[in-house]
Amino acid sequence: MAKIVIIKNARLEQFQGAPGKSILVDTDSHGTDDAELYQQSGIYSKPQDGLTGVVIDCMGNNLVIGTHDYNFDEDIEKGETLIFSYNNNGVLQGKIKIDINGNIIINNGTKSAVSHAELNTALQLMVTAFNTALGTKQDGSGTAGVVTLDISASEVSKVKLP
Fold first, then answer.
1. Which of 24, 28, 107, 133 could tie 6 with a disulfide, CB 3.0–4.6 Å?
2. pLDDT > 60? residue 101
3. Sheet containing strand 104-106, strands side by side
4. What percentage of residues in the chain have a pLDDT greater than 70?
5. Do strands 92-98 and 81-86 pair parallel, antiparallel, or not at all (unpaired)?
């Protein structure tokens, strides 16, 4: 039988004979303490206290099979996905929206990302043009100076763009 409950506490622990740790929750309903939270693979979260959850009894084990946050009311289009997180005080801290056009929008951002490789190529062409424009010294000997630019330290290799 399924029950609608209010989550009181969530924590990471090993549950009974499980092969590893999982999110366990206590609820406001008697007999549903230490309910194990089942989540979609690849999406992992620890619910805030006060969220509504659905608990089912599965062969004597209480499983939370879904949670819902009635306080979060951001509207999205059909087909869009929104991932969000709160701080310990329940204040929204971050969100990532994947819209119906495949755009990934972080924290309502309006700025476009820049590809490191393309930016570096453009800057090196500018450096070459600048050095060429410097030309020779007034006395006719050699170059007036060599300008270099290295932006390799600015590359964020863990964020990939198409």
1. 28
2. yes
3. 81-86, 92-98, 104-106
4. 91
5. antiparallel
